[in-house]
């Protein structure tokens, strides 16, 4: 989700950073404390899901709810517009699989449930869903606010105070362009990490 938000606001940012998922929100909050204390050797930022409270060193992503609920609910309202074409499946199959997945009590299983019915990997369904959500549903101002947090990190500015911007992901920023020789990727100029 974070990558698609950045692509919507400023595609160049995605080429200049690395997104690193960290799992549970409690891990994100601990990483946020490290960001606040400037404990990382490289610029780092932590983004929490919209259903999380603001925390030191963290930015809460758009949505006010879990990413699965935000994306599925919004795209359902739009009639799953754009998803079938992005994942190469018939519209009726996509709409049916996604609607049925939303009936599963655990929203964390929605993308996997729908992807299984469509003979896709979870990522091969979730990425196009996030792309369409960011394109069709996310306010430009919200996308720009998230991009600004990453741009500020790239510029070496201090992290913002705990804030909510209207999901759990991480971003890493290269200090230098990638080396010409792929075998030297462990050189001292490894990517800066944004969480």
Which labels suit this protein?
about 200 residues; alpha/beta; 2 domains; 9 helices; about 10% strand; elongated; disordered C terminus
Helix and strand topology:
Elements: H1 2-9, H2 11-15, H3 25-36, E1 46-48, E2 58-60, H4 67-77, H5 83-87, H6 91-101, H7 110-117, H8 122-136, H9 140-154, E3 163-164, E4 169-174, E5 191-194
Parallel strand pairs: 1-2, 2-3
Antiparallel strand pairs: 1-4, 4-5
Helix pairs in contact: 1-9, 4-8, 6-7, 7-8
Structural class: alpha/beta
Q: Into which percent range does the helicity of residues fall?
A: 40-55%
Can you tell me the number of structural domains?
Answer: 2
> Which series of helices and strands comes N to C?
HHHEEHHHHHHEEE
Q: From the alpha carbons, calculate the radius of gyration and give it in angstroms.
A: 17 Å
Average pLDDT: 85
Q: How would you describe this structure to a colleague?
A:
This protein is α/β, with parallel strands linked by helices and 195 residues long. The chain has two domains: 2-62 and 143-194, no CATH class; 68-136, no CATH class. The chain is 46% helix and 9% strand. The protein has nine helices and five strands. It has helices spanning 2-9, 11-15, 25-36, 67-77, 83-87, 91-101, 110-117, 122-136, 140-154; strands spanning 46-48, 58-60, 163-164, 169-174, 191-194. Strands 3-2-1-4-5 form a five-stranded mixed sheet. Helix 1 crosses helix 9, helix 4 (67-77) packs across helix 8 (122-136) and helix 6 packs antiparallel against helix 7. The longest helix is centred in the middle third of the chain and has 15 residues, at 122-136. It is elongated and about 50 Å long. It starts with a helix and ends with a strand.
